[in-house]
Amino acid sequence: MTVTVSKSHLVVAQNASGRNMNVPVYQITAHRPGPKVYIQSSIHGAEVQGNVVIYHLINKLKALQVAGEIILVPNCNPVGTNIKAGEYTLGRFDPVNGTNWNRGYFYDEQRVLAFADAVDDGLPISEIKQQFRTFWQQAIAEKLSSPWGLGLAQQLNLKLQTMAADADIVLDLHNGPVSTRHIYIPEYARDAAQHFNIEHCIFIPNVFAGALDEATFCPWWTLQDRLSERFGQPVDLGVEAMTLEMGSQEVVQFAEGEQDADSILAYLGQRGVIEQCPYQPKRMRRVAVHLRDYKTLYTDFGGMVEYCAAPGVPVKQGEPLARVLNIDELDNDTATFTLRAPCDLIPILHFPSASVLSGTQLYKVFTHYQQIS
Amino acid sequence: MTVTVSKSHLVVAQNASGRNMNVPVYQITAHRPGPKVYIQSSIHGAEVQGNVVIYHLINKLKALQVAGEIILVPNCNPVGTNIKAGEYTLGRFDPVNGTNWNRGYFYDEQRVLAFADAVDDGLPISEIKQQFRTFWQQAIAEKLSSPWGLGLAQQLNLKLQTMAADADIVLDLHNGPVSTRHIYIPEYARDAAQHFNIEHCIFIPNVFAGALDEATFCPWWTLQDRLSERFGQPVDLGVEAMTLEMGSQEVVQFAEGEQDADSILAYLGQRGVIEQCPYQPKRMRRVAVHLRDYKTLYTDFGGMVEYCAAPGVPVKQGEPLARVLNIDELDNDTATFTLRAPCDLIPILHFPSASVLSGTQLYKVFTHYQQIS
Amino acid sequence: MTVTVSKSHLVVAQNASGRNMNVPVYQITAHRPGPKVYIQSSIHGAEVQGNVVIYHLINKLKALQVAGEIILVPNCNPVGTNIKAGEYTLGRFDPVNGTNWNRGYFYDEQRVLAFADAVDDGLPISEIKQQFRTFWQQAIAEKLSSPWGLGLAQQLNLKLQTMAADADIVLDLHNGPVSTRHIYIPEYARDAAQHFNIEHCIFIPNVFAGALDEATFCPWWTLQDRLSERFGQPVDLGVEAMTLEMGSQEVVQFAEGEQDADSILAYLGQRGVIEQCPYQPKRMRRVAVHLRDYKTLYTDFGGMVEYCAAPGVPVKQGEPLARVLNIDELDNDTATFTLRAPCDLIPILHFPSASVLSGTQLYKVFTHYQQIS
Amino acid sequence: MTVTVSKSHLVVAQNASGRNMNVPVYQITAHRPGPKVYIQSSIHGAEVQGNVVIYHLINKLKALQVAGEIILVPNCNPVGTNIKAGEYTLGRFDPVNGTNWNRGYFYDEQRVLAFADAVDDGLPISEIKQQFRTFWQQAIAEKLSSPWGLGLAQQLNLKLQTMAADADIVLDLHNGPVSTRHIYIPEYARDAAQHFNIEHCIFIPNVFAGALDEATFCPWWTLQDRLSERFGQPVDLGVEAMTLEMGSQEVVQFAEGEQDADSILAYLGQRGVIEQCPYQPKRMRRVAVHLRDYKTLYTDFGGMVEYCAAPGVPVKQGEPLARVLNIDELDNDTATFTLRAPCDLIPILHFPSASVLSGTQLYKVFTHYQQIS
């Protein structure tokens, strides 16, 4: 084995019984230098497939020529994983207050800009990066020690972010409701789309909305832009963060998980984390959209629906997306109606229940997409 | 059209806003006499496919030679349908107190026996049936008017049962979690198994546990047995009640629903509700078990599982049912383990979430099943 | 200190992360022989005040002359305690399937009768008791090891019952929704009502509905009756089990908890568990009802209500219990209506929310009550 | 009667049964001109006391000399009111996705500034106000008709905001968890604090976080500031919006509701909505804080707590706020610990359950408060 695998547990919360709740932290340390990688899964408790991916990653990494260090945190939200509401897992938000478990990471643009303007311009890039990491981890630590305390989701997020903050590569493993695989990639790193075996890619701008990928790339992106401006030449800090959506929530599939692991290893190979990497990106069709063209289709009706369009399969304008049953009109012509695609699109995911209230996110779809491979 | 379709609405509850909640009641009246049929769907709010079946039934019945009368009540639980907990419908039980929506129907064995012993033995069977219906509806009405009131689920159940109580045939349309189609049939009516196009049949004894099918057949079965004993000859009262499980919950599928409707029409044709019925039971494989051989497999572990066995596909003893991931041992040989079939079986349904606590109903399975066609 | 206090932890479940969930078990062992006592609290997760009572009991018992052995299990349901749904604890039932956490204890009347008929009639009562304990614990153990497994609530219940099964005194500490203190006592032990400082007492018959108190006294009561009959003379086996309702759920109050502890100590003193017990039952008003006179008043309306009657304060027939607001009629005379007491009664508890659907348990009340001290 | 009371119903959503959900809208029209007032209650479903306040308001307004028009919308969120999770109402957020029901109102600062810069500076203020109302209602209408639809909470919010948008006074009636009465007032209208009979006042800045009060005052405040700047003299547009917290959620109290109604009438009298108003603001102690001094105290522990400090009663630094029980240490000195006030403060509200996870909002408190009457 060319790597050392060690395991520890990090306390992230305390439950109503007063018991500590912790997450397992697997650390793979290589004998040669290289990038730092941070991978977590299941911040949304029902999105469990990433745990299987991490299982395969650990197994496979043991036999590979790793350079650097990889931190893997499966099941990183022990609260969300364990809230059942009926047979399903109520994993997307804190059941006490509705807070999305993936919106409490730290970012503060002004502090990045202040750092960028103050840092010694004679320093080598590697040193600037190191100083920024220290600066940023300090900022997270300050936030964590707020004198009046913090909410549960934010405490959890910041403890995880502390581990992620000095990584060069951050991968956050999620699932959609009923979903085909897709990936969020910051626009500046769009070449990464070619390195994963994921057909559907979303390029996102430098805007922070609370998630881990944004909390990772926004500061580096902002720093990079400001330093480029200040130094009068392009600065590339080389930090990437992506959210990978590995199919549908509430599902564990070991075979698919192995393919997902291979896809991640192919990307890590391209980024120098694995030397002589036996996993290569597949030659395959890939399509991409800008985030603004990744649309959410909300219903303006409530009712019972059949999903006529399968995630991942293109739909032409006017073709059916859903067929809706009207239980009060079963004896006449208005018993059903069909919701049709407002434009050409690719459905990426749909709501997981046949029963919807008005204002439900029925589908999320690619529009104005382009083929990139 | 040989039938008249009429529609009304029955108030079954009042919500916290003080508003009435009602169910649609479709009544199909034929121009010639025949059996009375009562069909309802979605007493469990997430089990919505039966609504589609009723949609197809109404459509098709308009063109058929119906004898008698058919009451159809889709979406018969407006409370359960509308309780969301996360993206799914919390439809199996009252969220206030956990009461299963399908356990509050009325039955009282002693009252049946008292009726059986008191009824004039010179009456024709049809007259005895009619007297018993009146007697039984009176008993339900008394229960409904309990001086201290009744719980929500029981109020709902009894209002529905009032409509079902004078039917000759009662069909309650349900779904399993992730499930293949199956049907519960009282042992005395086991020939009905040959008339539905449903591969998996469960024969249930004369035991009341609160559900509508039992609440219908238990009194008639008990009455039938007592009268047979008293009169010294077999008495057949000809009332049947079945629970049909039309696949998986949280799913609406129009095409499958049409097949389910055809299957019900084939049965109704056999029972004289449809004359010259163009729908015939299929020649197909059918397997059956006694209720005691329909086993629930509970986990003694908590964790994340892949369901390796598909509902409806036989599994041999020792073959895998589930593969379980242990997130704290991903770095060693105990990272996963496999749960195996304790005997030959057919999985009929499994839990719909990959995340389970100990004591979860992982699978329900046929054991000691026999082929009946 | 005349007693030894030891502490251990019993695993009762495993969560979806695959982690063990355990309960603390405090064992107080006296240096002199005496009865065995088992006390648990919070089987319903939101009913937490009993934990404070156990805290005070442990503290006080250290300084008392205890005879025998006392097992105390606070927070005995680590699953129920930790299910939040909004800001409150969803502690009464398993969120997966609605199973009440206090209905899965073991009882089998036929097995008791078989034992009673088979036991050697020459044995001393103490020996019969010992044999029955062994017999009964064996029956529980068999149930627990059911080959197809058991549901979560039942597994939890049976593991707790295993500890309770050889006790002479079993106290199950609960809370009502918004409630005054009250206690359930088996009819054969009605003198115990005089030994607790609890104003409202309910005498319950030998009927099993799944709760721990019933699961404890039903077998002993049945055995006692059968042996009395068989031996032709009264047999008193001296085992008692009670459910104590220590005020309202969702509340922790240390001062009240100390009074509750004193009340329990007074009872234990009367039963010989504490010698020279400094705590004596208070001279106070006590009223009692038979279980059949402890009525639940359900609403037949939905709406928003003010609770006009305070738990514990007698209400005359016709006096107001609740005032209901009709939001659709605020501009006219039907804006409100008043629900009145159908007879003289003492409200013991009421629903904890102002918003009710039809079929809500609005009040539970004593009717036909009698003063017993 | 000097006023006309009319009633209509506005459809705000459709449920999973496909049924419309509506809110009652009461419109009080005076015979003489005056300000327009909009009052709603229960946007958070468990906060029901405001409905009683509106009941009293309607009753009393019938007998008063009203000028202008008053719209009252009780129970304005029929979805949130009817989601039960256990015995309580899960009313703060959409159970499907966690969205707070009070965060989806419309505001767009850039559009306000564009209007302010474009409006004809020769117009009288009243005409500018009228033009802005039209402009703003158009903006809300555009948002409501988004081509891909909107989420349920936002649809609801915007339909309500459409009614509120042309009011001069907007009052949003809420409740805290366990809470004393308090009120949020925009800084520019701080004199309003003297006109309500509410002891605790919070002055909030011109920052939009999604709530109805902000969505009302932010555009007018911003417009006012920009016009003042542009015209070189103070412009007062005279529009006020406040959130009133009428005590604790899950509670209906008719008598307190009448006092709350009198308090609102006193304010409306001061603002010219009621002529010769018999209700006058009380001479009473009032204290106020800036929003930045209204602190949320989060726990860093999980456990069971007694709330030692009552809402509304000042606490000195170091005095106890909560006492926490540690169920695993009941046999030793660490069985309990006390959480103390970090500074002088007034607790305004506390969490309504004794069971808390780490990161729970235990108290919200006034710090650095000042007496203002």
TrEMBL record, chains A, B, C, D:
InterPro entries noted in UniProt: AstE_AspA_cat, N-alpha-Ac-DABA_deacetylase
Keyword Lyase: no
Domain Succinylglutamate desuccinylase/Aspartoacylase catalytic as annotated: residue spans: 33-267
GO molecular function: hydrolase activity, acting on ester bonds; metal ion binding
Keywords of this entry: Hydrolase, Metal-binding, Zinc
Cofactor: Zn(2+)
Record keyword Zinc present: yes
A Pfam family per the record: AstE_AspA_cat
Protein known as: Peptidase M14
